[in-house]
Write the structure tokens for this entry.
Amino acid sequence: MCLIVFAWQVVPGTPLVAAANRDEFYDRPAAAAHWWEDSPQVYAGRDLEAGGTWMGITRDGRFAAITNIRAPSERRGDAPSRGRLVSDFLSGEVEPRDYVESLRSQAGAYNGFNLVVGNGKELIWLTNGRSDDPRNGQPLTPGVYGLSNAALDTAWPKVMKSRAQFSSLICQGAPEEAYFEMLADTSLAPDDDLPHTGVGLERERMLSAVCIESPAYGTRVSTLVCLHGDGSGMLVEKPVR
């Protein structure tokens, strides 16, 4: 995933609502969301190159998602797949807090990531990027949050815009389609508002859209997730390209 906005313990009876876009190279093979044959409790899309996933839920109300940290100068070609961090949590039974603690000693082996794991009782964000945010690795308090390819709630234009729009939709009790309309926004941020992550102005501009379009890379799917207080969950995925 490259953009996730989520409301934690804001909607009565629904501890988690999340809306997300997965951005990836178009030629990287992936399967649409489905119940996994090798882990029947997991409902998620699947990266067919490395075997992990970017976002998913389980029959017993577990949730996990990941975004990459955009730091091209620090990327290592021999690092393990970050998608395994999501699939390992979903296919296991470890509580979110214990899972995060188990990752701390090995997080540096991976390229930069933001991982969100939770259930109906707690939701935790963990990053191995350069962040002194005291929320890192700790259960989040109720609120609306935004993640892209930097630390939680970093003030990138698409994060700020999507989080505000998402909050409004939550307050309105908006229908499902409204969230997908929000995720389909292809407008670009003004150059003066762009972050500087080492990829050059043209690419920063292209990546500033909520829904990214380019010849080889862009938003592949949009996803809406709800975890309900009774332990049930819903994940709706719509292909973009």
In short: Residues 3-154+215-239 form a domain with the Penicillin V Acylase; Chain A fold (CATH 3.60.60.10). The two ends are 14 Å apart (CA to CA).
